[in-house]
Specification:
Elements (H helix, E strand, L loop, with lengths): L12 E3 L16 H8 L7 H10 L12 H7 L7 E6 L8 H8 L1 H14 L4 E6 L2 H13 L7 E4 L3 H4 L2 H8 L23 E5 H13 L1 H4 L3 E2 L2 E2 L1 E8 L8 E8 L5 H4 L5 E4 L5 E4 L8 H6 L8 E4 L6 H14 L6 H18 L5 H11 L7 H15 L1 H10 L20
Parallel strand pairs: 1-9, 2-3, 2-5, 3-4, 8-12
Antiparallel strand pairs: 6-7, 8-9, 10-11, 10-12
Length: 418
């Protein structure tokens, strides 16, 4: 494969319908005065009232796992020892929604973090950020307000696996940014061994919206099983004027996925680099419960459609190489398994391997790592082998498909340009 150039143009930011998360911030960063004019003052909630509101609107975490936020809040002990962690790592190159929120609506993120902290009777709030422009925006926001003086803003650039929330918590505790194992719950053993409520940036912004709008207005748009709006990163061959290459969009839940990426068959990635490939969106609907039930979880809120002009197998191979390079190196499935899977895919590109052999290799990774990284890579590759079966036959019979690798799926962040 030839090396594809990295895109350096800013990604468009668009609200379809009435902007909520992006209200006052579609055109650029919302300063405190603009933010207050749009969203009003912060209304304090105690833990029971906030948890009840979260439960009423069925709010799910917007990072990857999609865990009910009310259940997490109820499971977190309150008190001065408790920590609140806003995870703004967003280490996947395909994702831009969280850094967009931090860059453009930093006060909404802060309002959500402070609302959770007040509900838990603590002032220990840490915001972890990898993106330099997002860090600058949040730092400026902290200088604009008097109620966030105790908030700690932490620059964090420990890679994809190091940005997993439990790895972030270990880093905040002074250890290496490594996931400590699947059974370690931050609500029990978090920062410095203390109870910790941790979630991603959009989750906290949604909490702020709920506190501002109230349950009825929050749930007045969107799907019944997941009311409200959500942020998405769209990539690739999109059927909308002005969105060539990609965009960050705020949309109501409940939309047909076909409305976002087009209805035609072809490789569509749902959920990003730990996600699932499908052959066109069919009748899928944009809600986390519905997509999970269909076996294609939304994960980090990424939808990508590959254009017919690119070598799709080359795209998958390049991303798998990136995933292998992001291993934390603490267990065999990552350290040995992912590079071997990448080599197998290179052989498949040249027509020198069988898809069944690659599938078997991917299957060996599942459920064996200290974190979900091998599982996510396995899902990404295994589903691609199904969807790209016709193209794989071209590679096996002719040694290639005749199309260049265009690098539609990015494998590094373009230096803050997004």
């Amino acid at each position: 494969m030839t090396t594809a150039p990295v895109a350096t143009h800013p990604m468009p930011v668009i609200a379809w319908g009435t902007a909520r998360l992006l209200a006052g911030a579609v055109e650029g960063r919302a300063a405190l005065a603009t933010h207050r004019a749009v969203h009003g003052p912060v209304h304090p909630f105690d833990r029971d009232r906030l948890a009840g509101a979260l439960e009423a609107v069925r709010l799910l975490g917007r990072g990857g796992a999609g865990f009910p936020v009310a259940a997490k809040l109820r499971a977190t002990p309150s008190g001065a020892r408790t920590h609140v962690v806003v995870n703004g790592s967003e280490g996947e190159p395909a994702g831009s929604k969280d850094r967009t929120l931090m860059r453009r609506a930093p006060h909404l993120v802060l309002d959500g973090a402070l609302s959770v902290a007040r509900a838990l009777d603590t002032d220990r709030v840490s915001i972890v950020v990898a993106d330099s422009a997002a860090h600058a925006s949040l730092a400026a926001a902290l200088r604009e307000r008097d109620d966030a003086r105790a908030v700690r803003l932490v620059a964090h650039d420990h890679g994809y696996v190091g940005g997993e929330v439990r790895a972030v918590i270990r880093a905040l505790s002074g250890s290496r940014a490594l996931p400590p194992g699947r059974r370690v719950l931050p609500t029990v053993h978090g920062v410095d061994g203390r109870p910790t409520f941790a979630s991603n940036v959009e989750t906290f912004a949604q909490v702020a919206l709920l506190a501002s709008l109230g349950t009825d207005q929050f749930a007045s748009v969107g799907a019944a099983d997941e009311p409200g709006t959500t942020l998405l990163t769209l990539l690739g061959d999109l059927p909308h004027a002005g969105l060539a290459g990609g965009a960050v969009v705020e949309v109501p839940t409940g939309l047909p996925v076909a409305a976002l990426v087009g209805a035609s068959p072809g490789p569509v990635l749902v959920g990003g680099y730990h996600g699932t490939w499908i052959d066109g969106p069919g009748d899928l609907v944009l809600s986390r419960p519905a997509l999970r039930a269909a076996g294609v979880p939304l994960n980090a809120g990424i939808l990508a459609r590959l254009p017919a002009a690119t070598c799709s197998l080359g795209e998958v191979t390049a991303v798998t190489g990136w995933l292998a390079g992001e291993s934390a190196g603490q267990c065999g499935p990552c350290y040995f398994g992912l590079p071997a899977l990448h080599r197998n895919l290179h052989q498949l590109l040249a027509g020198a391997a069988a898809a069944d052999d690659v599938r078997a290799r991917a299957g060996l990774l599942r459920g064996r790592g200290a974190c979900a990284h091998p599982d996510g890579a396995s899902s990404f590759v295994s589903s691609a082998l199904v969807v790209l079966a016709a193209e794989i036959r071209e590679h096996q019979t002719r040694g290639g498909c005749g199309r260049p690798w265009l690098g539609v799926l990015p494998t590094n962040h373009p230096g803050g340009a997004r």
